[in-house]
Fold these 2 entries.
Entry 1:
Amino acid sequence: MIQSVPATHGLIVLDITNGVKPVEVSRLKFRDTYKPHWTGWDAKTQRVVVTGKGTRLFMVKLDQATGALSMDNTFHDAEGKTGFNFEEREWPHGWKGSGLPHGVVFSR
Amino acid sequence: MPRFLFAFALVFCVVNVPVRSEDQKTTAPGHYLFAWTGDVASKGNDFLAVIDADPAAPSYRHLVTTVATDQPTMYVHHTEYTMPASGMLFANDHDAGRTFIFDVRDPLHPKVETSFTDMAGYMHPHSFLRLPNGHVLATFQHAHHGRSEGSMGTSALPASKRTSPSHNWCTPFLVTGAGFPPSWGIT
């Protein structure tokens, strides 16, 4: 189970095979100012999309065998910074400004 | 008064998107992210952004398109957690008390199919869960009162609590088939 933990600015993976005794198996920390909230799983590419209190969306890789999380740095913006930047863009529908993403879902 | 009496929300409604069932599979090529997005400054409108999520695609990690709603951003919130087979995606602006249904069967040309507001006296939609039969389990977190009116939910929940991404103050109860237009096929 993957859980966002805003207080630690990251994600925690719990092995809940034994529901009476969940065990933390890994965690991933974002930058100190980022508070992750939403997570969405993509079975096709074995990745998790993450949004939170901020204008950037991140993609995280999950090793389902070990529970290990790692940032997908191939998913980056035009400046090479990890994630998708919603800050100050001219959007296709004609609006210009900073977007705040929340719910995110992959196509099938 | 116990908090649970104020924060009694989570109204479960069963919704059937008209005409399109889970049997009608989407077959669009490519792999995409649909990001339900609001304006940070709360001056613009909520919109759905489509981002290429196929690592093998030339346009990987790039914005593909957007579709805007007529809803000024109040608190853009949850979508469904996984894409339904029907390609009809639910997304809400929680504070506006409004839920949109997007037709994303063609990811390059997403459309707003329809929207709805409160149901059976409840508003502020929060989460959606697609059931195997294609219906949607929807949750609403407040009775039909404005947050600033000191109504149930409001007086028990300071703004800081309300906007916390880690909040969890809902107690569920069940309502079915309430308030939806007949043409939506709610059961």
Entry 2:
Amino acid sequence: MRRLSLSSRLALLFAACTAVVSLFAGVLFSRASETHFIELDQQLLDGKLIGLRRALHEIQSSDSKIKLADELSRQADLSLRITGSDGKRWYDSSASLPDNLPQQSGLSTINNDGTDYRVLNAPLFTDKPDSPQLTLLLDITHHQHFLQRMQHLIWLTVGLSALATALLGAWAAQSGLRPLRRMSAVAKGVSAQSLNARLPEANMPPELAELAHHFNAMLGRLDDAFQRLSAFSADIAHELRTPLSNLLTHTQVTLTRPRPIEDYREALHSNLEELQWMAQLVNDMLYLAKADHGLLMPQCEPLELADEVDFLLDFFAPLAEDAQISLSREGRALIKGDRNMLRRAFSNLLDNALRFTPPDGQIRVVIVDSADSSILRFENTGDRIPDTLLPRLFDRFYRADPARRKDDSEHAGLGLAITQSIVHAHGGEISCTSRQQSTSFIIQFNKRA
Amino acid sequence: MKLLIVEDQPKTGHYLRQGLAEAGFNTELVADGNTGQQLALSGDYALLILDVMLPGRDGWQILQAVRSAGLDTPVLFLTARDAVEDRVHGLELGADDYLVKPFAFSELLARVRSLLRRGSASPQETSLQLADLRLDLIRRRVERNGQRIDLTAKEFALLEMLLRRQGEVLPKSLIASQVWDMNFDSDTNVIEVAIRRLRLKVDDEFPNKLIHTVRGMGYVLEERPA
């Protein structure tokens, strides 16, 4: 079943609230008027009772009914019944009085044949226990009509005001929810080609500002990821184009005319180099693709970082000696991780450091162990990396110097991206800071329970 | 010594057979899983090279059939997929090695030789020798033409590997994995530097060079006519 729209829901709620409030006010008012009428009638009847008692005392003495009729004729809507102490009806002032009247003393209200009466029972002589009973009846039909009309009016008011607020509420909700529709219009317009659309956060109501902010942030992240992905695909094509073009040209040129055997051998060797480079590129990209799909699953075993770093420094020692760079390590820390993956990550960093550190430079690996994290800092005395380039270092195919390509390295600028993937797979973070003569790659592994 | 290759891609199969034949192996190539399994179960082969994806029945099924027939022929898997589960699955079924395409032929050759050598453990050697180069495994000393050569521990391990596998082209990745225990594609020229230093000590002073670079493939230790 389709849920009600927000506007209809709000309009109905407004209408219900108005109905409840106006109903409550109406009922209160109607009760108050009724009570007021009862009080008025009570006063009137009490007043009449005194006059009638007096008139009836005189009847006893002077035996004249004139005074009584006089007393009664002053109030046209008032009737009187006198009942003896034995229950016999002695007197009715009007012929049409109802037969059954309430017996209890005090004020009550009855209805007889469409006529409403207020009835007051009282003894004629207040000091005699077997006194005849006086029953005063006041015709209050017009009061009741007035009350009924008022009740109708109340119902009408309730209905109309509910309807009016429903309509007004629907309009108010519609215009109040306009920012939401703007949001949905923006969302509707978003596609891979137009990820740069944003909601104007400034003129959003506060309730929606946060949502708009997160919505924009989400668009931003999507845009960023999408840009990277498109750039990645373009880069792959670009990276493969050069070796492919070399292969094509070289092979075709070689085949254009007969050549000495040495030339063919040379052509094949050259092709082999291009092919190996491409194979390496594909393998690295597959590794990154696995990382992207969360398929890099480190086999966690306890590792002493100092041992792993020493192992790699030993491996790189001949290269460093050749380049006249000194290697050192300080600190220790025990973490859980995958030996081969971490060796690969660290060896990429050391390999990079060796390439960018000038002769007589230093590469230091500092391990800091604290209660909640283990930090490795790979420091080298290479040239400063400009701040603008730092955030892009871990991008795929990124090279600090675009002119450097395929010189002595078999890798296509994927080394740092791979290192980052491995660190992330271990739940760690990697960052880079660079000052004059000091560049550091910092890896932080969090210790979790 | 016969090898069986079960590979459905004609080009790959053809080059594998040619390469292995030129390396001195007697090989047979079939392109579908069913024939492959029949031949494998005959027990005539010293090594099986199986592609995972095959028409008829896949490499794993062949391996399963071979192992349940009680044959312990070494099996080398070739696959274009490199999922961890695949690797684990293959090893659980009893595969001996695993190569992911694209691989270098020199890598394949080196692994084939390792697998074939595994079965026939040679008697405990006390020394290795080629021409006038002698490596004493017990005293851990190296001599050439009677002249003592001082090597670091890694250089000794590297030379030992070259001597044990003399005549074989050893790819850099295999050297990195065997000598340095670096079991991933390390993108460094550390191996080149290490070989260069070893040459400096072992070859430079002698007219008869033993360590050779096979361009694009790796290194080989052998005596070549001048």
